[in-house]
Each structure stands twice: as C-alpha cells, then as structure tokens.
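Morning, I've got a small favour to ask if you have a moment. I owe you a coffee for this, so here goes:

…
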Amino acid sequence: MLNAGSYTIIPAAGTLIAANYNFTGFINSTLTITPATLTVTADSKSRVYGAADQPFTASYSGFQNGETLVTSGITGGPNLTCDATATGPIGIYTITVAQDTLDAQNYNFTFVSVDNVWI
C-alpha cells in the first residue's frame, strides 16, 4: 500500500505489440494519493456538581484499508477543553476538540465538538 503523496508513473511497452504500429514516445505521468479525512469527535461526559472533571477523550472514525488508531501511523493527540468549572452553574457545556499535536501522513482531520451535560 502506498502512502499519501506523489508518485511517478513510468509507462513501457512491456508485451504491447501490433502488426502495423511501433510504440515509442512513452510519456511519464504522476499518481497523486491524497490523505483521507479522519473525523475526531469529543466523547460526551457528565459529572455531579462539585466533582472533578473526568478525563476528556475522543473517538475517531473514517480509517481506511482496515487501519485502526494503533495501526494508522497517527501520532500525538487532540486538545480537548471545556469551560465548565466544579462550582460553576449546572448546565450544558461544550467539550471542544482541536488539532494540538495530532498528526498523520495519510489522514487530514476534521473535528466535532460535543455538548456535555453537567449536573
């Protein structure tokens, strides 16, 4: 399997034959493999008023060729933040997900933040 990037295609006559034609002047071309898009979604969390936050986590979807997070070559991780505080008002807050150190040769990333219910 090739990684995302550009590769030269070099044509050749190979076994190509024809009684009335000569094959010459083959012209190189380029194969471009673009990165696939991987969606990174903040996982929903909830907690009791006054309790400490649970660690924020994210889920990934859109892997190609049977890859998983472990086998995809992805390094680093997303930045997950929320404005809720332990003693802030009860309500719904957004867990925001962003690039941070997340990186991969074969994937671009799109991010989905989620609303989080704090009780």
In short: The chain has a mean pLDDT of 92.
